[in-house]
């Protein structure tokens, strides 16, 4: 079950992030930020629940941190704009 979850969440999420990046650069930075957070969360859970780690654990954690660090400066303004538009529609 864990392997299937890993395949769907991490593998499927990574493919979805790549597809979104091909379709829309603006949406791609947000997808990259979310996928980086998913990777960090997944590895954070492993570090909490597993007693042994290996080099792949730390490499995937580093990849998640790098993904968040690279996409956040571009994704946060996009999210602010999206949230601002949503609030404007609700207020009208």
How would you sum up the major sheet? none
Uncertain runs: none
SSE class: mainly alpha
Give the helices and strands as they follow along the chain. Answer: HHH
The strand count comes to 0
Radius of gyration: 16 Å
Number of domains: 1
Overall pLDDT metric: 91
Shape: elongated
Helix content: over 70%
Provide a quick synopsis of the model.
The protein has 92 residues and is mainly alpha-helical. It is 91% helix and 0% strand. It contains three helices and no strands.
Q: What this model shows, in words?
A:
- With 92 residues, the protein is mostly helical.
- The protein has one domain.
- It is 91% helix and 0% strand.
- It has helices at 2-23, 25-49, 55-91.
- Helix 1 (2-23) runs antiparallel to helix 2 (25-49) and helix 2 crosses helix 3 (55-91).
- The longest helix has 37 residues, at 55-91.
- It is elongated, with a radius of gyration of 16 Å.
- The model has no long low-confidence stretch (mean pLDDT 91).
């Amino acid at each position: 079950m864990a392997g299937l979850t890993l395949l769907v969440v991490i593998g499927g999420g990574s493919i979805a992030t790549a597809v979104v990046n091909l379709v829309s650069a603006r949406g791609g930075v947000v997808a990259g930020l979310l996928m980086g957070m998913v990777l960090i969360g997944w590895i954070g859970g492993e570090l909490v629940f597993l007693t042994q780690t290996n080099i792949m654990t730390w490499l995937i954690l580093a990849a998640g941190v790098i993904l968040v660090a690279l996409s956040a400066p571009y994704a946060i303004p996009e999210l602010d704009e999206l949230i601002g538009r949503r609030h404007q529609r609700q207020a009208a």
